[in-house]
Design brief:
The complex is a heterodimer of chains A (312) and B (661).
Chain A lengths: L4 E6 L5 H7 L4 H8 L1 E4 L8 H6 L5 E7 L2 E3 H13 E7 L1 H5 L11 H9 L7 E4 L2 E4 L3 E6 L9 E3 L6 H12 L68 H4 L17 H10 L7 H8 L5 H5 L16
Parallel strand pairs in A: 1-2, 1-3, 3-5, 5-9
Antiparallel strand pairs in A: 4-8, 6-7
Chain B lengths: L6 E6 L11 H9 L4 E7 L5 H13 L4 E6 L2 H14 L7 E5 L11 H19 L8 E4 L4 E4 L3 H12 L4 E4 L14 E2 L4 E2 H14 L3 E4 L2 E9 L2 E8 L14 H5 L7 E2 L8 E2 L2 E2 L11 E2 L5 H5 L5 H6 L12 E7 L1 E4 L4 E2 L16 E3 H7 L20 E8 L14 H16 L2 E6 L9 H10 L3 E4 L2 E5 L11 E7 L4 E7 L1 E6 L1 E2 L4 H7 L27 E3 L9 H21 L1 E4 L4 E3 L19 E4 L4 E4 L9 H5 L5 E3 L4 H12 L3
Parallel strand pairs in B: 1-2, 1-3, 3-4, 6-7, 6-18, 7-10, 18-29, 20-27, 21-22, 21-27, 22-23
Antiparallel strand pairs in B: 5-30, 8-9, 11-12, 12-17, 13-14, 15-16, 19-28, 24-25, 25-26, 31-34, 32-33
The chains are: A alpha/beta (312), B alpha/beta (661).
Chain lengths: 312, 661
């Protein structure tokens, strides 16, 4: 019997998710032993035409990372959807829209203009008698499941090697989890936090601090020190590497299954920590949160209820 | 489990209350086409018996399993319709009420638009009700013991009513004696019966009643628990005299090394002096003196010969080493009757209180005219002379944008009473300066007419100032009232010997602390807020806590006593029912999902959430939870859910209201 075929692909992403697969280290050899990798542009020399040539449904699992922000990414996602039995949105960008999703706060034309000025590349690009057609920007950045049907999600920016390994095991094992599952625990990070015991019973914050402003205590709950840690809002499974590095959680594992809009929920929860009932005082307490959208919707703007400022 | 949703929608005309502004038939026809709707009717009065019967009948005949009624506010008839569901054999929480009266017909004029709004609201309810789950009401037993806080006339009356009904009552009073403000009054309006004569028998009954435990000189410092099961901590200040050993002979006071009183007598509003060991007034209850450690030589220097202790002798009732103690009691209901404080006349400096010695507050005059007061009922100025003319200035600190905006309700009448008493005692010429005379009680207007017949002057105008700056010899040595007489239409200067300021009533300075301690809310002026101004005037938003007297708003003695009786009756109703039903719209923690982050713990305004160190999980006391939803919003991982308000239900409602095709 032939080994199950697996594909990896990247859309609008930084490449960190690809690194994760390599970070499996020697375990990647077991993966290679267990499956046939039929498409993996970052590491192996297959072309789109090779995928086109495959039979529909012949790939067992396609892991797609990155958000969808242009016509080529959408085209590749649709192609892989046809060829694969199971599609996994791999990483925060594919799952929730991710950091590229923050582009939805601006119109893409303004973004291109800001970066390239009058030199902005045109859709048809000509040079030395050659002509190149560039992919067209979508109106808005989207998570993968807003473009194609997705069976599973692996959270994280990037997913940790451990959670990736567990996802592979779960999917290639005998009894796959129900469709729509996020392949990570469904509790918040506080559950796993090494500093859990130091969180005070009644935590209220008199002043939020930014990480560069204080030397954080290595043992004590970061929220209790006034650092905006999104651990209470964020799905666990990462084993708290940021906390162990004395940095607050930024929420890359996204919300639990019970929360529809991560940023709104985080905002609501964080606002309730302000230790005052006076409006001006509350403003002062929350003022150090410099970029609320970038803080609370860092990984999830496109999948939020509002979707961003420019969604058309 | 996929049960087929069969919804019945009932749109009410409410006579013409709704039908005049909303096309009720069109709404009913529209609702009939919505998903899951099996029956849609309109009816003149859904709350009537035939209206409710429609629901019951349809539940049986059409196998309905969800009901939506579009009518008035749920405050009015949610209970009615839920009961109809229950009688029809359906769980009463498979129901959603749509308010198309207060939130639609009564606030709009444009009929087509109001009709569309009614349709939108009905659609939202139809979407949401499909997700409702059957719920059951909880039940909590009620302890029979009652705590009454504040021993003025309100607390005294409530305590006696309950004690006479056979309930055990704890009456806690902050001062060394019960009696409150009423004990300071001379006569009461409009009947002019003697305040002490009607009050002191009730005070004695409190002391004598086997069902009443009286703790004076004590304060409630902590309240935990919930309706039927409050745990209350009472801190008892040391009075340095053992109540159980003292026989009330008062020989210790006589024996004090101070031969005369030397310190401000609070009970007489500072018009007389008392000793460091004193009893506030002769009929004080308990009849036990108190030692003021601030002024007692022994407390200050340790070098007193302690003649009081000698005088007490064998009784050994004086204990100068007494310490503050705490008592913890379990009660089922609480009546708050903490009263008011009098507006501080210094805050209206234009009237010269504290500057001119012959400017008095009304309460000072109450003491002056009182036979057991500092002058034994002789009304004299500070120099001992009898006043020949008196000005009574109404509304001091009341109806005043600079101070308190409300009418204190009793000042007109007590001013009339004081006018009468001053006239009686001194035969002086009396001037009342008023903005409006308000006499809307039984016998009040007749009393006002009586005063006019007695030759008391009434001048309509808000007094600009009281000054001693004389313009002519007739004003020399007098206090001059400068006022615009708004009936005559010119400014007047009226010289008098004595000025009485009819100071208003306001919430106690620590009302906010007390509010928090008992989990109450306050209205904007700071008085404790009743649950409903008309239909639940002595209840509060905290079940099992009731209000009586002026802590809720300024009121006179008859109203205070009536309210105290009502509060006692409400407490008795709970006690006799034996248990109380609790709404199931409470929040609960999904235990497998809670990460133990503790964000919710400080959020709960009712202290209903606790964190277990053992399980590392939060849990919500269902009897304490009021269903406010604060913890639900704060839970960062969405692990607190509230019955009837889970995310799916709310989102369905939002989508419903916004999906106008």
């Amino acid at each position: 019997m032939s080994k199950p075929k697996v594909a990896f692909y990247w859309c609008a992403s930084c490449g960190g998710c690809e690194e994760t697969v390599l970070d499996l280290a020697e375990a990647v050899l077991d993966v290679v032993k267990a499956v046939d990798i039929v498409f993996w542009p970052v590491a192996m020399d297959f072309k789109e035409s090779d995928v086109q040539a495959m039979e529909d449904g012949s790939i067992a699992v396609a892991f797609i990372n990155g958000a969808i922000c242009n016509s080529h990414q959408r085209h590749m996602a649709e192609l892989l959807r046809r060829k694969a039995q199971t599609v996994v949105a791999f990483g925060a960008c594919a799952q929730l829209g991710g950091i590229p999703g923050l582009a939805n706060m601006n119109h893409h034309k303004d973004l291109v203009e800001a970066i390239y000025g009058s030199d902005a590349p045109q859709e048809i690009w000509k040079s030395n008698g050659y002509e190149l057609t560039l992919p067209r920007f979508a109106d808005k950045v989207q998570a993968l499941d807003r473009v194609i049907a997705v069976e599973y999600y692996v959270p994280g920016c990037p997913p940790t090697p451990k959670i990736t390994q567990q996802a592979l095991d779960a999917l290639l094992g005998g009894s796959p989890p129900p469709k729509g599952t996020v392949l990570a625990p469904d509790q918040a990070l506080c559950e796993d936090c090494p500093r859990r015991e130091t969180r005070p019973e009644k935590l209220l914050i008199k002043e939020f601090k930014r990480p560069h402003e204080i030397v954080a205590d290595q043992e004590k709950c970061l929220l209790a020190q006034g650092l905006l840690c999104l651990g209470p809002e964020t799905r666990s499974g990462c084993e708290a590497p940021c906390i162990k590095g004395n940095m607050p959680c930024t929420g890359c594992f996204g919300p639990t299954s019970r929360v529809r809009d991560f940023g709104a929920k985080a905002l609501s929860a964080v606002a309730s920590l302000a230790d005052s009932n006076e409006e001006l005082d509350i403003e002062r307490i929350l003022a150090p949160i410099a970029d609320p959208v970038g803080t609370f919707y860092r990984y999830s703007l496109p999948t939020s209820l509002a979707g961003g400022k420019f969604t058309k | 489990m996929s049960e087929e949703i069969r919804t019945g929608v009932y749109t009410c005309h409410c006579g013409s209350n709704i039908a005049a502004t909303v096309d009720v038939k069109a709404v009913a026809e529209y609702a009939a086409k919505l998903p899951n709707v099996v029956v849609s009717r309109d009816y003149k009065y859904m709350c009537s018996d035939p209206g409710q019967d429609l629901i019951k009948q349809d539940i049986r005949e059409h196998k309905l399993n969800r009901i939506v009624v579009a009518s008035c506010s749920p405050h009015l008839h949610e209970h009615t319709f839920r009961t109809a569901l229950a009688k029809g054999g359906l769980n009463e929480f498979l129901f959603q009420m749509v308010n198309i009266r207060e939130q639609d017909s009564w606030v709009h004029l444009d009929k087509p638009a109001a009709t569309v709004k009614a349709m939108d609201l009905v659609r939202a309810a139809v979407c949401r009700v499909a997700l409702h789950k059957p719920l059951t009401k909880g039940s909590v037993p009620i302890r029979a013991d009652v705590l009454v806080v504040g021993g003025g006339i309100a607390g005294i009356h409530a305590a006696l009513t309950l004690a006479n009904a056979g309930k055990k009552v704890y009456l806690v009073e902050r001062e060394p004696t019960i009696g409150g403000h009423m004990a300071k009054f001379d006569k009461t309006f409009p009947t002019l019966d003697c305040a002490a004569c009607i009050l002191t028998p009730k005070m004695s009954s409190v002391r004598a009643h086997p069902n009443i435990t009286l703790w004076s000189y004590s304060e409630v410092t902590q309240v935990d628990g919930y309706v039927g099961n409050f745990k209350v901590t009472v801190t008892r200040k040391p009075r340095y005299i053992m109540e159980d050993l003292c026989v009330g002979c008062l020989e210790c006071i006589e024996a004090c090394v101070y031969k005369e009183g030397k310190f401000v007598d609070e009970f007489n509003m500072g018009l007389s002096k008392r000793k460091p060991i004193y009893i506030p007034f002769p009929q004080a209850i308990p009849q036990v003196p108190v030692i003021d450690p601030e002024t007692c030589i022994d407390f200050k220097t340790g070098k007193c010969k302690k003649s009081c202790v000698d005088a007490c002798g064998e009784r050994h009732a004086i204990n100068l080493k007494m310490k503050e103690t705490t008592e913890i009691i379990d009660v089922g209901t609480i009546i708050l009757s903490t009263g008011f404080q009098v507006f501080d006349a210094h805050r209206s400096p234009e009237y010269g209180y504290g500057v001119y010695p012959n400017v008095y507050t009304a309460l000072e005059i109450e003491r002056l005219v009182n036979a057991s007061g500092p002058t034994s009922g002789e009304v004299v100025l500070r120099d001992g002379k009898r006043p020949k003319s008196v000005a009574i200035i109404h509304c001091v600190g009341s109806r005043d944008e600079k101070n308190n905006r409300w009418c204190s309700r009793v000042c007109c009448m007590y001013s009339l009473k004081l006018a009468h008493l001053l006239k009686e005692h001194t035969d002086a010429e009396i001037f009342n300066f008023y903005i409006d005379i308000r006499t809307p009680g039984k016998g009040f207007e007749e009393f006002y007419q009586k005063l006019r017949n007695e030759g008391v002057h009434f001048i309509r105008g808000k007094v600009a100032e009281v000054t001693d700056w004389a313009f002519d010899p007739s004003e020399e040595g007098k206090l001059v009232i400068r006022v615009e007489d708004t009936l005559l239409g010119f400014a007047r200067r009226i010289p008098v010997d004595m000025v009485v300021l009819a100071t208003g009533l306001e919430p106690h300075a620590d009302a906010q602390e007390v509010r928090r301690r008992f989990n109450l809310t306050c209205s904007s002026e700071g008085f404790f807020l009743e649950r409903h101004p008309k239909l639940a005037p002595v209840s509060t938003f905290t079940d099992g806590v009731f209000l009586a007297g002026a802590c809720q708003s300024p009121k006179d003695i008859p109203d205070t006593v009536a309210q105290a009786g009502a509060a006692a009756a409400e407490a008795l109703a709970l006690i006799d029912a034996g248990h109380v039903e609790i709404e199931p719209n409470t929040a609960f923690v999904l235990e497998e999902d809670c990460s133990g982050c503790r964000t919710c713990i400080p959020m709960c305004p009712f202290s209903a959430i606790t964190f277990s160190e053992e399980t590392k999980l939060a849990s919500i006391n269902q009897a304490l939870c009021k269903g406010c939803g604060t913890c639900v919003a704060s839970c960062p991982s969405g692990s607190i859910v509230q019955n009837l308000y889970d995310d799916e239900e709310i989102f369905a409602e939002i989508e419903g209201v916004l999906s106008n095709a």
